[in-house]
Amino acid sequence: MHEDLLIKFRLLKGREIEADELKQIILEDSHHRAYILALAHLGARPRTEKEILRYLARKELDEQAALIAIERLKREGLVNDPVYAELYATQRMRSQLKGRRLLQQELQQRGIKRDTAKEAAAKLNEESETEIAIRAAMKKWPYIKGEERERKQKLAAFLLRRGFPSSTVREAVKTAAQEDLEDEDGLMLDN
Question: What Gene3D superfamilies would the database entry show (predicted)?
Answer without folding.
Answer: Winged helix-like DNA-binding domain superfamily/Winged helix DNA-binding domain (1.10.10.10)
